[in-house]
Amino acid sequence: MKLYSRRRVLKMAGLVVITSAAGHLLPLPRLNAAQSLANASAQADFIQVSQWLTQQENLNSAVAHALLIALNQTQQNFMAGLTQLKALLQSQPELLQQEQLTFAASDAASEKLAQVILAGWYNGVVGKGKHALYVTYVNTLANQLVNDKLVPPSFSYGKCGSWAQQP
Amino acid sequence: MAAPNQSPVVIVGTGVVGVVIAEQLLDAGIPVLMLEAGPRVSRAEIVENYRNLPLAAKGNPIECYPSREWAPHPEPAGAGKGYLQLSGNDSYAQSYVRYAGGSTWHWAGTCWRLTPADMQLHSRYGVGRDWAFDYDTLEPYYVRAEYKLGICGPDDPALQWPPKRSKPYPMPALPFGPGEARFTDVVREKLGLHNIPTAQARNSGTSYDDRPACCANNNCVPVCPVGAKYDGATALSRLEAKGATILSNAVVWRIETNAKNHIEAVHYYDQHKQTHRVSGKLFIIACNGLETPKLLLMSADARNPHGIANSSDQVGRNMMDHPQITMTVTLDEPYWAGVGPVVNSGIMETSQGDFRSEHAGAYFRFNNFARNRFVTFGALQKGLVGKALDEEIRRMTACTADIVLAHEILPDANNRLTLSDKKDWLGLPKPAIHYDVGDYVRRSYNDYSKPIADRIAEAMGAIDKKFSKQFNQSKHIMGGTIMGNDPANSVVDNVCRAHDHHNLFLPGGGAMASTACGNSTLTMVALAFRAADAIVKQAQEA
């Protein structure tokens, strides 16, 4: 059977999928090689950069770990790019005082990587097209941001009619 | 166990129409064999598919129903990619599900009835066609359909659509979410329009039909995770308990006639491309508004050179839907769409009036889908970061809404399904559809529905509004086996029996002679009940 491309994506995504509610990384043996890339130092750098970009201190560490693995698999020279991005944000903190990511032309690659990292956190997918990796659903920041008002679709509000009150 | 090769009644299709008819027959003691082109899957599998979809794909109701190679249905990729061959001024880009249970897997559950006027367009307004019978004839079947599917709706006749009905809904209406409630208030207070509760096949406050009460997963489309919404799949086990035989992965590709030009058998491929023959006395083809005419056309033989049931040359013609335009508004106050069921209300009064001699009616619907999955991409594309990004996603989730303008359309013989020279995995022709919504619809949008939508946007306090650039399809497939009293210009009679074949029934949306503006499923099911009565009578006489 010729595989449906997104099915392939989802199959690949299974390697890094986060369980829906608890946010725990599945202990799949095939992840071992990829996980070796995500050493403690890289994880610390990734969380630091992610905290700066999202301006959130309490990012989910399991999602961070899964995102790091997915980024390693989909972005060329990701670790070097991450180091470069971290150095840039460290040396020029004013970049994050703006509402929009606007780096110098010479730092275009870092700007692009920052957008990829943000997209991973907010919509739970890293990469594009058939190379995209699905990482998480309920733990996306797009869901977390509104969880005082909305539950992620396919999860329940509660007993019938409980949704009628003004959020 | 070998698959049966004969049955008194053979039903092709396990969607809502097929299962409703099957149950009527079983209850009358008549055995049925049901053939389904696609697989039979569990609800949990579909829910898991949905949750594992990338965020961008979650808005497409077909994405968590991947086609099997032998039973493609329209989808962006995989076996269903390029299945529909489309041409014409407008796109007839339908989506439907070839799984056991059919397309009600991913419907919203909306169950508007037609009005008496909707069924008499020609005699009242000089356009379109009249139905072969009037509303009063259909009304008892609507009641049966509402009790079979389990419809919740308002008790107050002023809030019912249409108010002319003989029996209350089996369950009370569901409460509105905050966005719908605010929408209802502003259109009433500022425009005098009445946004009324949708009659819907969703359990309100109680279990019904062995299904639980709605707990607002906001996921009726593409799949209700708990089965609170009726779908055909919820009935399959009950049918089997009553004695039905259901064969999945059985793609019917030929209808065989005998010397009397009665239907003698159907032939199907299994998933291994092996062909099988099933004979019977009565045949019901209910495999949706596209697959049914496709099968009829594929089955042309020496006695029926233009296809089965097609002496009128109307099979595959008059393809209809509800052409819709979406208005996306940005508001200066939070509405918080996305709390509660996805479709819960509508403005129906705008669908009626003498203007229908000139242009189509329209109904307006506040789409109650959670918005953050749509707006997050836009916020990211703006390059926002940090708190500004968070604030934009929150603002756009709370302060944007989609208002849908759904139009009726007239039957037009030029809007036509034919057989493409492109073939699917089994070597069967893909459906080709030529389509144009026509001036009747375009005039409505330009002169009627868009001006109303503009006023709605203003009443809501919109600071921005955008309209979709083309008419989109509502996935309400109608017209390809149109009903009428004259065999010269219609395919089925007033009980959905083929004019050309005494033992062939073609019930469902394909028989509808007009579309009205509201969703078609309840009318399809009412027609199924009417056909079922005729089928039972014919089977018992035989």
Automatic annotation (TrEMBL), chain A:
Keywords from the UniProt entry: Plasmid
InterPro entries documented for this protein: FAD-SLDH_ssu, TAT_signal
Official protein name in the record: Sugar dehydrogenase complex small subunit
Lineage: Bacteria, Pseudomonadati, Pseudomonadota, Gammaproteobacteria, Enterobacterales
TrEMBL record, chain B:
Keywords, comma-separated and alphabetical: FAD, Flavoprotein, Oxidoreductase, Plasmid
One Pfam entry name: GMC_oxred_C
Residue span(s) of domain Glucose-methanol-choline oxidoreductase N-terminal: 101-323
InterPro entries, per the entry: FAD/NAD-bd_sf (IPR036188), GMC_OxRdtase_N (IPR000172), GMC_OxRtase_C (IPR007867), P2Ox-like (IPR051473)
Domain Glucose-methanol-choline oxidoreductase C-terminal: 411-528
UniProt cofactor(s): FAD
Gene Ontology MF term list: flavin adenine dinucleotide binding; oxidoreductase activity, acting on CH-OH group of donors
Family under the similarity heading: Belongs to the GMC oxidoreductase family.
Protein name, as recorded: Choline dehydrogenase
Organism, scientific name: Pantoea phytobeneficialis
